[in-house]
Amino acid sequence: MAKEEMNKDLPAEIHEYLSAFQNSIGPVDDMLATMMSISGNELLQKLDPLEQAKEDLVSASTLNSMFWVCLAPPGVNPKEHPVKQELERIRVYMNRVKEITDKGKAAKLDRCAASRFIKNACWVPKPKNESKVASKGKSKK
Fold first, then answer.
1. pTM score
2. Tell me, what's the pLDDT at 82?
3. Which of 58, 55, 27, 32 is nearest to 43 (CA)?
4. Domain that holds residue 31
5. 22 and 64 part of one domain
């Protein structure tokens, strides 16, 4: 009943924002429950080092972002708090991990194939001592 009274007191647009917020929290809650069901050590043992780094960075970023949000209600300016520097540091490391990931996905150069392309594309002059008659008699393949 208290919930129905609260809904009547709220303007319609605020009610829509709260409903959207509640709908977006559901998947986050499900994901968090899944992550909490496995211990951190078990999770990290199943991942390769790059995935471990990604998981650590996401966790650190999430915690620091939540702390950033919690600074505003008491009146602390988060832009002047050391948490801003920490978030920037995490962002730099996330960019490094992204570069490493992108580098692994980049196309590799096949040196043998490239040298064949270049060799076949270049014009090679005929030797001076080869006669015209000898070149006419050769069969083409």
1. 0.55
2. 93
3. 55
4. 10-46
5. no
